UniProtKB/TrEMBL annotation:
InterPro entries: Cu-oxidase-like_N, Cu-oxidase_2nd, Cu-oxidase_C, Cu-oxidase_fam, Cu_oxidase_CS, Cu_oxidase_Cu_BS, Cupredoxin, CuRO_2_Fet3-like. Residues 21-136, 146-279, 357-487 form the Plastocyanin-like domain. It comes from Chaetomium thermophilum (strain DSM 1495 / CBS 144.50 / IMI 039719) (Thermochaetoides thermophila). Residues 537-571 are annotated as: Disordered. This is Uncharacterized protein.
Length: 578
């Protein structure tokens, strides 16, 4: 055993990426060219790829000129590296133009992940990509021959700041989000898979959308699901899957020796209503790809799905058979509904409170407020919840809205004990009927007018967001903050380049939410009302002159002032719900 450990330690590598965040012009749907946030003057963004035990280093330089940036590594739990998680205002400051911040962490769990900007509403502008951690001990290693990544997403012709400005208007009384203009597969319109007879393929399906879920179905081939969100599952057949924003599925597709020709598959954007029982309500955004076994034949034919009836994500079972935590020490109940703030602007609320960003990043407050850091008042209205080290925490989300919302927890893979069907209503308060060997995920899609019950072990000190992964809803404030084991966060130190990013922006790095170091329990100066003027990632300082791309982008934004987002016609059938 010692020898094995030694051998693995010896091969652990450091994988380094030197990245500039840059604007580039792209036309991924073939209908509209626009600036997108790329890496090193290219887009789609590159893949991060490493092996379990490796150290990943990303040196990220902001060369955007007119926006701040940052990166989150979605699904990695950042054990002992809680300051590398990436969300702006939480574990770091936004990175201003012409600054570099280094992310350094060990990838300790194999699986399919992704990275994305967690800096205001920036990732729908393109800053997102796959993050693959290969396993040295893959239980399914002998079951497949090749790997294929499929990235699915919605896409918008508006840039994100314009889209959010249009959304957060008092006239938007229906809380309508930006409506996608296109469905992208692999950040474009082409994702055929070369399929060789006799081979089995491991598909790594990742949804990087800002809003839409995606349905997927393969004609003539059954998906054998082996992993969700970087957590192995007992192999299970699925005819259709729904992958919500930020979720991932790994599944096997077998090109049997009897197969020949080319087989279509269908990816369809899902409007997030549970229309499994309502065939009339859908977006006309479908993509047909092909499993290509015979190049000489043309790619024709479509995969027709009469009715979407995807696998129930709560019914998969963890591969290791780990039992559900049998009880809990701390209950956090979050009733989610849309709401209006004091100024009549549409927001999204947990327990009638919307998340309001504060001056000091929350982790920095936890590290610098001493014994007061167990007092939630120190953190301001970031919807803070304190949990103690080693607590088994149960989070209940009641989704009072009539649409599906995918909720993501940073820093953990949680157990999904219950995620009942649409229309089930709120949690009864009784802990019964739960899964015994539940799947573990980092993102759970909660059904319309229903709820979910999840549990995790608070063994990872840090400040971890819990939020809807519809990016538009994050910008409306649908976020809570788990402050985990604050007694173990006291006097944490932070890398100088992270602190430098703050000082360049004039952001304090110590004290309570308002930067008060003398009396952290003094709440004066904290933000208590969300700003009415949305600026998102926009940088108005004079750190650099604008590039041609940013000038064009600014000109376009200035020529189209904010206007209420029209409610799309298809939604007139029912009360709009997002
Ligand atoms: Cu949402």
């Amino acid at each position: 055993m010692l020898l094995v450990i030694f051998a693995r330690a010896a091969i652990a590598a450091t994988v380094t990426y030197n990245w500039n965040a840059t604007w580039v012009w792209r036309n991924p749907d073939g209908k509209y060219a626009r600036p997108v946030v790329g890496i090193n003057n290219d887009w789609p963004c590159p893949k991060i790829e490493a092996t379990v035990g490796d150290t990943v280093v990303v040196n990220l330089e902001n060369r955007l000129g007119n926006q701040t940036t940052g990166l989150h590594f979605h699904g990695l739990n950042q054990i002992t590296t809680e300051d590398m998680d990436g969300p702006s205002g939480v574990t770091q400051c936004p990175i201003p133009p012409n600054s570099t911040v280094t992310y350094r962490f060990v990838v300790d769990t194999a699986g399919t992940y992704w990275y994305h900007s967690h800096n205001f509403g920036q990732y729908p502008d393109g800053l997102r990509g796959p993050l693959i951690v290969h396993d040295t001990d893959d239980p399914y290693a002998n079951d497949y021959d090749e790997e294929v990544i499929i990235l699915v997403s919605d896409w918008y012709h508006n840039d994100s700041i314009t889209a959010v400005k249009n959304m957060i208007q008092p006239s938007n009384t229906q809380f309508a989000p930006p409506i996608p203009d296109a469905l992208l597969v692999n950040e474009g319109l082409g994702a055929n898979i070369n399929f060789t007879s006799g081979n089995t393929y491991r598909i790594r399906l990742i949804n990087v959308a800002a809003f839409a879920s995606a349905m997927i179905h393969f004609s003539s081939h059954t998906m054998k699901v082996i992993m969700n969100d970087g957590s192995y599952l007992k192999k299970k057949d699925a005819s259709q899957l729904r992958v919500a924003p930020a979720q991932r599925y790994d599944f096997l597709l077998e090109a049997s020796s009897r197969d020949s020709g080319n087989y279509p598959f269908l990816v369809s954007l899902d409007i997030n209503r549970d229309w499994t029982n309502s065939t009339g309500l859908q977006w006309p955004m479908n993509y047909t790809g092909y499993l290509v076994m015979d190049d000489s034949q043309s790619l024709t034919g479509t995969d027709v799905v009469d009715k979407w009836d995807p696998a129930d994500e709560s019914k998969f079972e963890a591969h290791d058979g780990a039992a559900a935590f049998s009880s809990y020490d701390k209950l956090i109940q979050l009733d989610f509904n849309f709401c209006f703030d004091e100024n009549g602007y549409p927001r999204a609320c947990f327990n009638n409170l919307t998340y309001i960003g504060q001056k000091v990043p929350t982790l920095y407050s936890a590290a610098t407020t001493g014994d007061d850091n167990t007092n939630p008042d120190v953190y301001g209205q970031v919807n803070p919840f304190i949990v103690d080290y080693g607590d088994i925490v149960q989070i209940v989300v009641n989704n009072i809205d009539a649409a599906t919302h995918p909720f993501h927890l940073h820093g953990h893979h949680f157990q999904i004990l219950s995620r009942p069907a649409s229309g089930t209503g709120n949690w009864s308060g009784s802990d019964s009927g739960y899964a015994s060997t539940p799947p573990r995920r980092d993102t759970v899609a909660i059904m319309p007018n229903s709820h979910a019950v999840i549990r995790f072990n608070a063994s990872n000190p840090g400040v971890w967001l819990f939020h809807c992964h519809i990016e538009w809803h994050v910008e409306m404030g649908l976020t809570a903050t788990i402050i985990e084991a604050p007694d173990r966060l006291r006097d944490l130190s932070f890398p100088q380049d992270h602190l430098d990013a703050c000082s360049k922006l004039g952001i304090p790095t110590a004290g309570n939410a308002a930067g008060n170091t003398a009396d952290p329990t003094d709440t004066s100066g904290m933000a208590t009302v969300p700003p009415t003027d949305y600026v998102g990632a926009e940088y108005t300082g004079s750190a650099s002159s604008d590039s041609d791309s940013t000038k064009k982008l600014k000109a376009r934004r200035e020529s189209s002032p904010a206007a209420p987002q029209p409610v799309p016609h298809v939604l007139d059938l029912v009360r709009p719900a997002f």
